[in-house]
Request: fold
Amino acid sequence: MPANVQDVLVNKVPTVAYIIFGAILGLLIGLCFGGKIDSTALIYLKLLGSLWLNGLKCVVLPFIFTNMATSVADVRSLKGSKSAAKLTFLWYFLTTLLAVTVGVFCSYAILIPNQTTINLNNRTEELAEYVSGKKDLIKNNKFNVAEQPAMLAKSLIPENLVDAMAKNRLVGVIMCGIIVGMLIETKELDEANRTGADSGPANGPAKMYVLIMFLREINKLCFKIIHVLVAFTPVGVVSLVAAAVAVSDLGAVIKDVSLFLGAVMTGLFIHALIIYPTLF
Reply:
């Protein structure tokens, strides 16, 4: 490949363009199967996408944990950090609450009125048989609204941090990162930052400095891995989209995706162009 063409493809074309191209290519590949594909072929069709998705799941939560711990420790080491932290938390809580409200509004306005309703007239025999076979599962996993605050509070502190990362329990991982950042002694960290990693041959490096530098190095490593995974995003998109289209009704897929994108874009528009300008 000529050097000038390679430079354009690598440095000039944005990643989002490759992702869009990958989605279109995956759609065309999936259409070739006409909704009928062997289970073995399906496994190999989505293999690259599954590997890409597993890589993201593997590295994102450790990245979040180390990033939260180091960020909280750095903020605490600043002068006047308490007032800044309180103000930041207040604005974060307010904007998050408003974002959730907008999301619920868009769901009720766009998604719920257009969802497919299952009743005695349109229920197929296959669906009825499937649901009847899951009665025990449904009975044992009923959604109780009154229990949700307690369940959310329980998820704040995981029994096992590694297990929480493995099972993608984001809330518990974030809370553990905040706690670690809060417990790091900022006075010792400030002293180590001023004098360097080594406080002398006799005393050795400051303990908290070693801890914070370890977390920062893990954070940098995770960021590098994520950068590599982002470069392979178009390949993963091709694989996942092709596998999804190959086993689905294209009309239903287009309808569902269009409604979802419409709801998401409407919510982003309201939040970015109405709520933020109103607040600031």
Q: What stands out?
A: The first helix runs from residue 3 to 12. The chain is about 75% helix and 0% strand.
